[in-house]
TrEMBL record:
Family annotation (Pfam families): CHAT
Recorded superkingdom: Eukaryota
Residue span(s) of domain CHAT: 89-343
Record-linked InterPro entries: CHAT_dom
Protein's UniProt name: CHAT domain-containing protein
Length: 352
C-alpha cells in the first residue's frame, strides 16, 4: 500500500511538471478561493432533497445563505414543463434565487451612471440549464431584474475560475502576430442552411484586423481548425452545434468532415498558450440534455474553458440566425472600442 501511495505521489509530481498541469488534483486554498472573487462575487447554487443554499464567495469571506423558497418540487415541475425562459420562470428565479443573493450581497438598484457589479454563477444540477442572468420581474418600469442590478457570467466550477484567472496575466492583445480564427458553416449535411453564418464572419473580419490580428479562415475541416488553436487568441465558430443525449462528451460543433467534439477539446491541451476568447455562435453549446449528466457540466462551453480559453461565449438554447449575427457584431465592436484585457474597465465589460 505504501509503495502504491509513493508511486501515486511520484506520478502526480511528474504530471505537475507539465505545462498547464501545475495544479493538477491540488485543492485550492481558502485564501486562493477568496482572491478569485476580487473582481466580483462567485455564487454556487447548491440543491438537494434536504436543503437549498447559495454559497457566496467574496474577497473577504465565504458564507452560505439558505434559499427557503426554492423547492425541489418546483424545480422539477418547471423543468418538466419547459419554457425555462418564460416571464413566469424568470420571475420565479428572481424570487427564489436572485433576489435573496443580491440582498445578501447588498446590491440594490444601480443608477445608469454606475458600473454594474460582477457576479459569477455556478449553478448545479437541473438549475444549470436555467437563465439566472435574466431572472427578474420583467414588467414595464420594473428594475427588479438581474440585468439591471449586476453583470452575470457562468462557470462550471470554482476551480475553473481559478484556473482561468491564473492564466490571465491581464495583458491586452495582440502582442505579436497572433491570430483570430474565424470559421463559418453555412451548409451542414442534414441540418438547415445558415445563410447568415458567412455574413457574420464578414462583419467580424475587419473588426479583428483593426485590433492587429492575423485573420485566418479555415474551411470546416476538423484537423485544419484544431491545428490553429495553439496560435490563436480568438476562435469564432458560426454554424450548428449538436447535443448528444447518450454521451455529452460527444456533443459537438458540426463541420464538413467530422464533428469537433467535447472529448476532442478536452484532449487538446492549449492552456500554455492561454487563448483569450472562444465565441461559439451555435445553438445549445451550453446545453446538457440528460438530467443524469447535469452535475458534470459536460458541454462545449466548459470544454473550451477547460481546454485553455480564458473566456467562452455560447448559448443555452436555440438562437435565431439573424440575432446571432447582430450579437456577434456588437460583442466584437465592444472589444474594438475597449482594452481587450481580462479585467478591462472599459466598454469591453459590457459583453463579458
Amino acid at each position: 500500500m505504501n509503495h502504491d501511495l509513493g508511486e501515486l505521489h511520484r506520478l502526480l509530481d511528474d504530471i505537475r511538471q507539465r505545462p498547464g498541469f501545475e495544479e493538477f488534483l491540488s485543492a485550492p486554498s481558502e485564501s486562493g478561493i477568496k482572491n478569485t472573487a476580487i473582481p466580483g462575487a462567485i455564487i454556487v447554487i447548491n440543491t438537494s432533497e434536504f436543503r437549498r443554499d447559495a454559497i457566496i464567495v467574496e474577497s473577504d469571506q465565504i458564507r452560505s445563505i439558505p434559499l427557503p423558497q426554492l423547492t425541489i418540487l418546483d424545480i422539477r415541475s418547471n423543468t418538466q414543463q419547459g419554457h425555462i425562459s418564460s416571464p413566469k420562470i424568470l420571475e420565479w428565479l428572481w424570487h427564489t434565487i436572485a433576489e435573496p443573493v443580491l440582498g445578501a450581497l447588498g446590491i440594490n438598484e444601480v443608477s445608469p451612471e454606475e458600473r454594474l457589479p460582477r457576479i459569477w454563477w455556478i449553478p448545479t444540477g437541473v438549475l444549470s440549464i436555467y437563465p439566472l442572468h435574466a431572472a427578474g420581474r420583467h414588467y414595464k418600469g420594473s428594475r427588479d431584474t438581474m440585468i439591471d442590478r449586476a453583470m452575470s457570467s457562468y462557470s462550471s466550477s470554482v476551480r475553473a475560475i481559478i484556473r482561468t484567472r491564473s492564466r490571465a496575466g491581464l495583458k491586452p492583445f495582440p502582442l505579436g502576430n497572433e491570430r483570430a480564427v474565424l470559421t463559418s458553416m453555412e451548409r451542414t449535411p442534414g441540418y438547415n442552411a445558415l445563410p447568415s453564418a458567412g455574413r457574420e464572419i464578414s462583419q467580424l473580419r475587419p473588426i479583428c484586423e483593426s485590433k492587429g490580428f492575423e485573420v485566418v479562415e479555415p474551411k470546416g475541416i476538423k484537423e485544419d481548425i484544431v491545428s490553429q488553436f495553439p496560435e490563436c487568441k480568438v476562435f469564432h465558430f458560426a454554424g450548428h452545434g449538436a447535443t448528444n443525449l447518450r454521451d455529452p462528451s460527444q456533443s459537438s460543433l458540426l463541420l464538413q468532415d467530422e464533428p469537433l467534439t467535447v472529448s476532442t477539446l478536452l484532449e487538446t491541451n492549449i492552456q500554455q498558450y492561454s487563448p483569450f476568447l472562444a465565441y461559439l455562435s451555435a445553438c445549445g453549446t451550453g446545453q446538457i440534455a440528460r438530467e443524469k449528466f447535469l452535475d458534470e457540466s459536460i458541454h462545449l462551453i466548459s470544454a473550451f474553458q477547460l481546454a485553455g480559453f480564458r473566456h467562452v461565449i455560447g448559448t443555452l438554447w436555440e438562437v435565431g440566425d439573424d440575432i446571432s449575427v447582430h450579437m456577434a457584431r456588437i460583442t466584437y465592436e465592444a472589444i474594438q472600442r475597449g482594452d481587450s484585457a481580462d479585467e478591462s474597465r472599459t466598454d469591453s465589460d459590457s459583453w463579458s
